[in-house]
Amino acid sequence: MTRTPDGTEGPQPDTGTSAVTAVPATLEPETGLGPSAAPPAPAGRPPGSAAPASRLLARAALLTACLSVAAALLGLVRDQSLARLFGAGRDTDAFLVAWTVPEFAATLLIEDGLAFALIPAFSAALARRARGVAGDPVRALMAGTLPRLASAFAAAGVLLALAAPWCVAVLAPGLPDPDLAVDCTRLTASCVLSFGLAGYCSAALRAHRRFLAPAAIYIVHNVAIITAMYAFGGRWGVRSAAFGVAAGGCLMVAVQLPSLITELRRDKGGRTRLKGRRTKLGGGRAELRPAAPAPPLDVPLLAAVLLFALCRQSQVLIERFLASGLPAGAISHLNYAQKVAQIPMTLSMMLSTVTFPVVARALADGDTERARGRVERDVAVAARLVLLGAAAVVACAPQLIGLLFQRGAFTAQDTAATAGIMRVYALGLLAQTLTGVLVRSYFSAGRATWYPLSAMAAGIAATWGLGAGTAGSLGAVGIAAANAAGITLTAALLLAGTGRRGVPLRAGAVLRGLGRPLRAAGAATVAGGFAAGAPAAAPAGLAAGAATVTVVFLLLGGAPGARALAPALRPVRSLPQRLAHALSTR
User: Fold this and answer.
1) Integer Cα distance of 15 and 357 in angstroms
2) Domain co-membership, 250 together with 328
3) Cα-based distances in Å from 147 to 47, 154, 200, 348
4) pLDDT tens for residues 327-338?
5) Residue 306 domain-assigned (yes or no)
6) Which of 51, 57, 254, 377 has the fewest CB atoms within 10 Å around its CB?
7) Structural domain range at position 444
8) 205 inside domain
9) By C-alpha distance, which of 208, 213, 10, 15 is closest to 116?
10) CB count, 10 Å around CB of 42?
């Protein structure tokens, strides 16, 4: 499972060290919301003084997570609408090949690539503006970067549209109707420009500590796709979904422009203010010292993160390439199974997303013991949450898929095929979650490391080899099994490689801690499967199976104890009060 434009891999506030540590340490707290709004306490400051920043961080991450969950739910509605209107056949296969464009654009232009490059640059420009540097460094930065980037995005989008026939031939050489996929790809090619501009706006706003608009972009994107399918589906067919992707990309930019324009109109004495050091002049006047130049962008770190994201995202390309030679509908079945199966992973990753800045700060302070304890607790809690969800997915797969998708053009045969694939996908959910948690520990130190890329490349090679060897005999189920095996290899390598390359985890202790929840998940899966199959109606079977899985899992000790769970949940306690306060300060 990989990140998608609806954010279903988990809420993705800026998860790089750049986004956490680049905010000047002496910025005064304000009402902006977001993970990168909480700077680490400067050296010499009492630890208790970081409490307001920690509360701001927790509130920001909570709001971002809530909006990300809303976007993920809308993504599920989008997939339900696609299945209902167009089923799981050659039309949806063609659209899902074109869907590769926004998948990659979201990863490279909104989440990882531009965020790691631009947030530190904007943060440094804001610091120079607050110190009284001549001119406006923020506008100068935009004038020097935005026109060039926009031109590059536009040129890449036009090139992709022109090369759509060749792209489709490479991505899915066995597709029955390549012309339809080419039409959809040309429509989604506009996302290179719109997603690039949306990512630029998101980076600028996050550097200004404004996170509500960036967190809402996937919501408007999915709303546009759903609306287009129902409005134009009868006339344009599945091309309406591709048109919705293009229109949604424009809305992603439009929803952020008012906030960005408001921030740019602020003068140098705006609310983002630095407590500058003053020097006495001859007449007793005081003026701010000139700001030190901003540190250069860590290009090796950016390259390492970007290549890791590209390598992980290539799982989608492998699946669709191999499935294109299978009977019509295989790509669609893989897509639907993946989207539902990754929901437990999305929920389990919430905690590590919120606590990631804590790890980054601990490493910045040289406190590797605190960083190790934080990551190990995150692994323990996230693993238990995803194992509970995976057990429910495996036990209740037919009931879950039938309830969500079996209507309209999505038949009972589609339900059976998708449920079988989803059960195999679920075998890799624990490894998907461990990979997401562990890779943060590698990049949280702010140093370039190529080991995560090597681990991911090994997993991708295993996915390709196993998928190519089993697709002919096992079909889409073999491709799903290859995905699970490949990501499991990656997770094992990441766990084994911690130490000098990342946070020095105790791999043996981590693995021993997973023994009990793994046994509990296995027993809960068997019991839940029997319970789900007893009632004839899908809703009743789903309820019975999910309840049984939960009870058995908890009784067998699968849930973390109070001591393990409390620290991980500390940043998100008092959820209603924090959310209400966050919304009231906008």
Assistant:
1) 8
2) no
3) 43, 10, 11, 39
4) 878 888 888 888
5) no
6) 51
7) 317-568
8) yes
9) 15
10) 11
